[in-house]
Amino acid sequence: MGKEAMIELSNVDVSFLVQRYGFSSIKQYFVSLGSKKLFERKPILHNIDISIERGECFGLIGKNGSGKSTLLRVMSGIIKPSSGIVDVRGAVAPMLALGIGLEPEMSGLENIKLCSAFMGVSVRHTNKAYEKILDFSELTQEEMEMQVKRYSTGMMARLGFAIATVYDPEILLIDEVLAVGDVGFQNKCYKRINEIREQGSTVVFVSHFLSEIQKICTRAACMDKGRIVKVGSVHEVGQYYNSLFEDPGVGHSRK
Amino acid sequence: MSTEQSLKQRSGLLHYTELVFVVAWKNVKLRYKNSFFGFLWSLLNPLLFLAIFTFIFSQAFPDIENYPLFALTALIFWAFFSTTSNHILGSVVENASVLRSVYVPPIVFPLSQLIAGLINLLISFIPFGFIMYFLGFEASWVNLLVIPCTILFALFTFGFSVSMCAFNVYFRDMGMLWNSLQPALFYFTPIAYSSTLVPENMRWVMKFNPLYHFVELFRTVLYHGAVPSERQIMITGLLTLFMLVTGWIVFSKLKKGFIANY
């Protein structure tokens, strides 16, 4: 593998300080004079080793709660690992998930400016992108001036995808968002993802659907209980993923 | 679909400064977006209190010359403190969805609420100026000192609220607590009454309230038309510094756990 790695994670552990829920925990905390902890450390990801190369579309698959989204957030820098090294060499577009980052009270147009600012694009440059976003999202001028809260889920997904990809991100992270649009839009998204990839960017794609991953990804990993349990070709990982559901014993490699 | 402008690595103070202003402007627009009277509401609240206070207290406090002006010079800044602290308190939690999807330093949100509050206050100076003029306010150059005083007070408000904002991520009780404490603080601060009405031997208690010092500061500049004493400047300056440092420490310590607890 002589290719250049864009995302490299080695020995990454992630754990969260999670508040113990409810009033009783606060009461216990004071009664025990602080010796009973108010927060507990909850491990989320264990020992993640992964290297994703330039121009690759990498799929992440796994059951609900296996840590896929958390891993994406680690890659985007939103979550800092509690140990290990995260090396991401490139500008990351906002993680694409449903309607995320869009301000429901504002119009589509205002949201373009706002999201661009969050992505680090100066307001001066948003006008140039506007036409392209309009074109890609298939929203009319009139709809663009409407408040986003009146959009349908599909419209939001279209706008979100258009904004996140318009500035040619070097790294694009997608968290099961394409399932919402209709088939026409899905195909358009796949096409755009391929385009971005061919320009030398890296795409990490999370999905529950094996078929989606098989359609666009070159390589994939399967996650289970916060660990990467299998890395390889889409085919291999797909087989492994399916086997998780046949035999619940597989993949429970607890220390 | 390629654009000349591509994504840059997000870093640098300049970018975040622009971001703070973009978000601040969004906040200003959002505040009054779905309301008919919009900006007028931010004037209405202090004016309503002014009317009530004038009706009730101007007879009760005959010693205070031009009572409406006396009350208004403090009410304007209380209104700023009250709304801005509330907005800052909720700012991080309200933007959880953004913070979960793109890397932005969380401090951007409280900061932009502060800027939004300041913009609102600056605009409201114009109508309040007219009202004060009708109340018999005599303008002088000294009144311009209200600008640095406002900046100082804004920084104080920020430092104070940003700690609450950080705690609010973990315990939503913070918002409820602050909502119920606010009216108490309002009456504990000499806004509707003069601090000279409080018996001499009890006045030291009042001075534990940082807002007391700021209200006196604004009254010195606007109501008495005088330059604040060195002592006043020092006390308010130190209070601001203390709040900013505390806010900074609390926020940077607590922000590490934000992501798991929004």
Average predicted confidence as pLDDT of chain A: 83
Structure annotation, total helices of chain A = 9
Query: Quick one: overall form of chain A?
Result: globular
- Beta-strand residue percentage of chain B: under 5%
The arrangement of helices and strands of chain A along the chain is: EHEEHEHHHHEHEHEEH
Rg of chain B to the nearest angstrom? 20 Å
What would a concise description of this structure say?
Chain A has 255 residues and is of the alpha/beta class. Chain A folds into two domains: 1-91 and 169-255, Rossmann fold (3-Layer(aba) Sandwich); 103-168, no CATH class.
What does this structure look like?
Chain A has 255 residues and is α/β, with parallel strands linked by helices. Chain A is built from nine helices and eight strands. In chain A, the strands form two sheets. Chain A has a five-stranded mixed β-sheet, with helices on both faces. The longest helix of chain A is centred in the last third of the chain and has 16 residues, at 183-198. Mean pLDDT of chain B is 89; it is low at 1-6. The interface between A and B is large, with 50 and 35 residues.
